[in-house]
Amino acid sequence: MTASLAKVPCTIITGFLGAGKTTLVRHLLENAGGKRLAVLVNEFGDLGFDGSFLAGCGIEGCTEEDVVELPNGCICCTVADDFVPALEKLLNRPNPPEHILIETSGLALPKPLVTAFNWPAIRSRVTVDGVIAVVDGPAVAEGQFADDPEAMAAQAAQDSSVEHDNPLEEVFEDQILCADLILLNKSDLVDAEARARVIAEIRAHLPKAIKIVETSHGKVEPALIVGLNAAAESDLAARPSHHGEGEDHDHDDFDSVSLPLPAGLSPETLSIRMTKAAEAEGVLRLKGFTAVPGKPMRLVVQGVGRRVSHHFDRAWGADEARDGRLVVIGLKGFDRTAVEAALAG
Ligand SMILES: Nc1nc2c(ncn2[C@@H]2O[C@H](COP(=O)(O)OP(=O)(O)OP(=O)(O)O)[C@@H](O)[C@H]2O)c(=O)[nH]1
Questions:
Q1: Where in this chain does the record put each CobW C-terminal domain (predicted)?
Q2: CA 273 to ligand 1 centroid distance, Å
Q3: pLDDT tens digits for range 109-144
Q4: Beta strand extents in the chain (DSSP E only)
Q5: Does the interface predicted TM-score (ipTM) exceed 0.90?
Q6: Which numbered atom of ligand 1 lies nearest the CA of 285?
Q7: 3-238: CATH number
Q8: Domain spans, the chain
Q9: Domain 254-344 has CATH 3.40.50.10800
Q10: Given the CA of residue 43, which atom of ligand 1 is nearest to it?
């Protein structure tokens, strides 16, 4: 096989909302070592933040056209309409990427995506080099993905199927069960004892031994991630899922909304309001940006669970409206009114 006919390796980066996928992708772009990378990024929620964070990253050798956004909902449900055509477009470029990173939304199940690599349109051109699951260490330590044992027992008494009572648990499990490598991220936020507990909990979910690497801010030797040669699309049986092939996974358990975020407040005031919004019933993830007085830079605000933070990411463009937006993702029926009240102060 000549080099031009070799399959382009793709790394799928999965992991729950806010686990650190975009942070990892940035790190990999910054440390590409001269390799021509492209990124396909998908989000639940319609603002395309991750793409804008990556495309505006200013990383040498990474141009806007190397970052392709698939913002419509969930990549695993729009494989035919969005994912396969976007991948083909990248491959058909005169100077195609040498490696493709695919960042899924935090609610996506990775297996349908891996399965799509067997589609006739792309199967001779690409291969899944590896599936990387990024795990939010503190979220696992706090029990975010744990079933309530009493609710499980009550359910099992009524019906013998293995449905989980916690919808987060199901997504989390599908993601780690599909992985070739697990990154236990946010190690800076958990002590050694809790890290050991989290690793034991992850292992308890896994039917086979998978390497778990502890990271902070996704900082990992790129060679550990890229070049795994897993050919995951040929190994689907080893990647169990709660959702059978062709079965719908329609996100009935989750919801998202995009809201205006007030401009003209100090970062401190915004932070207080964001903290309150993050505490609203059912809220899982906040991400957005806005303008603050006397600053030429855009302020990015982030909320993962109850943890909020902010930083300035880039200068506002000359013709850009200096207003703010916030995407809120939560469990279905999350308290949107409480979020709006918190943001309004
Ligand atoms: N303290 C700490 N914060 C982190 C770490 N990794 C990521 N973060 C922060 O966590 C927040 C979410 O990180 P992202 O990289 O956007 O997470 P994501 O998985 O891409 O999020 P979604 O695309 O919304 O699912 C940001 O505020 C990051 O700066 C880490 O290792 N430690």
A1: 254-345
A2: 20
A3: 899 899 999 999 899 999 999 999 999 999 999 988
A4: 8-15, 37-42, 67-70, 99-103, 126-136, 181-185, 211-214, 254-261, 283-291, 297-304, 307-315, 324-331
A5: yes
A6: 24
A7: 3.40.50.300
A8: 3-238, 254-344
A9: no
A10: 23
